[in-house]
């Protein structure tokens, strides 16, 4: 059986185990909708501006020039400045808190994913490898009702290891934690660069959850490609 080659199955979190993009966009647009100082703005324009600032600041966060908390406040401050919204720092911080609460609230358990992961847990050791803060990562797993599938010890977060995907150090950290060789490890993720290129660079096999049917942008070829996480059981020839 194909799946016997692997002992450990590792998952990315955002947009692999839940629809992060949806929760993120809904939190941003609800933030606009539910604040009097913002609700005259076009939600789409606000979202695009916010997302662009997020992308730029994320690079600084990954280079460890700013903390995650600074990133989240700065992306909001920049967005407000660019859209000519003049409010106090206190009000900005309260809007930022609303955004975070709303984002987490949008994350809900998915019985299908729970069933799939429980089945896989009967076969493999499993972990999560995610870029971001520990607080958020544990909270997301809790909101998804996946605590009994992934113990805290096996949720590996960039903030704790000091390295972010695709840096090889974070993947080596995981190998050490599981006391496993890369050849016996399979990494499942949606992001071609951070997940697939990162895991491949240290010799892990990979499953690319390619939601949008993209062509691999470089010559790193995923071991398997699926359109949805539910297809991994067929790829690994597992009976469910
Ligand atoms: Mg992802």
UniProtKB/TrEMBL annotation:
<dbReference type="GO" id="GO:0016787">
    <property type="term" value="F:hydrolase activity"/>
</dbReference>
<dbReference type="InterPro" id="IPR006439">
    <property type="entry name" value="HAD-SF_hydro_IA"/>
</dbReference>
<dbReference type="InterPro" id="IPR036412">
    <property type="entry name" value="HAD-like_sf"/>
</dbReference>
<protein>
    <submittedName>
        <fullName>HAD family hydrolase</fullName>
        <ecNumber>3.1.3.-</ecNumber>
    </submittedName>
</protein>
<keyword id="KW-0378">Hydrolase</keyword>
<dbReference type="InterPro" id="IPR023214">
    <property type="entry name" value="HAD_sf"/>
</dbReference>
<dbReference type="InterPro" id="IPR052550">
    <property type="entry name" value="Pyrimidine_5'-ntase_YjjG"/>
</dbReference>
<dbReference type="Pfam" id="PF00702">
    <property type="entry name" value="Hydrolase"/>
</dbReference>
